[in-house]
Each structure stands twice: as structure tokens, then as C-alpha cells.
Design goal:
The protein has one domain. Helix 1 (3-27) packs antiparallel against helix 2 and helix 2 (31-64) packs across helix 4. The chain is built from 4 helices and no strands. The protein is an all-alpha fold. The chain is 88% helix and 0% strand. The model has no long low-confidence stretch (mean pLDDT 85).
Length: 123
């Protein structure tokens, strides 16, 4: 990912998560707790985007240096992204006692931002 593209994706993710948090704050009686859960779920997506961007840059560096294992970096990025998401959700549920559905809503909002930010950076 280009640095400009990563910034666009991260910005779109933050906006999507903030919108979701605002909706949760307005519509729920226990809004602050729910919004914190949304933020935590969204953070897992933002962390995944950072991991993916780092692994893509490593892969590009490996290709330019003629190394044959460049694709390995992409696979590692996908695996790490999945594992960090699972670990963060486990931490949020078991240790921090956050609400599951708002965490999932934050994850989805982050993924929507990832998709929309990626589209915007391609245009």
C-alpha cells in the first residue's frame, strides 16, 4: 500500500468507527459502555490495517531486492491480522468485559472504512 493510500484507508476507518460510536451513544441507555466496545472492536481493524500495510511494504522491498519469499510476507500479514483480531476480541470479552455485539459493530465499521478508503485511494 502506498503511504497516501494507507492514510486514506485509516482516515475512512476512523470516520466509520466514529459514526458508529455516535449512533450507539445516541440510541442506547448505556451508551458510553457500548461506545467503548465499538471503539475497541474498531481498533482491532485499524491494527489489522497497520499490520497489512507493513507486510505489503516488506513484500515490495523483497520483490525489488529480487528475493523469492516476498509472497510469504503477504501470507504472514493475513495470518497475523486474523490472530490479532481474535486475541483482541478475547481480551475485550474475557478481561475487559466489553459487550460483544458493539465490538462486532466496531469491527464491521472498520472493515467498511477499509473498503471505502481503499476505493477512494484507487480513484
Amino acid at each position: 500500500m502506498k503511504k497516501k493510500g494507507v492514510g486514506s484507508v485509516l482516515w475512512a476507518q476512523v470516520v466509520a468507527i466514529a459514526i458508529t460510536m455516535t449512533v450507539v451513544l445516541i440510541w442506547n441507555q448505556n451508551g458510553a459502555y457500548q461506545a467503548l466496545s465499538v471503539a475497541f472492536g474498531g481498533f482491532s481493524t485499524i491494527l489489522g490495517t497497520g499490520i497489512l500495510a507493513w507486510r505489503v511494504s516488506r513484500s515490495v522491498d523483497a520483490v525489488t531486492k529480487g528475493k523469492s519469499h516476498a509472497v510469504l510476507y503477504l501470507y504472514l500479514g493475513a495470518i497475523e491480522r486474523f490472530l490479532y483480531t481474535v486475541l483482541l476480541f478475547g481480551l475485550g470479552i474475557v478481561v475487559l468485559k466489553l459487550a460483544i455485539l458493539p465490538m462486532i459493530a466496531g469491527l464491521i465499521a472498520g472493515q467498511v472504512g477499509f473498503f471505502l478508503g481503499g476505493l477512494k485511494s484507487q480513484i
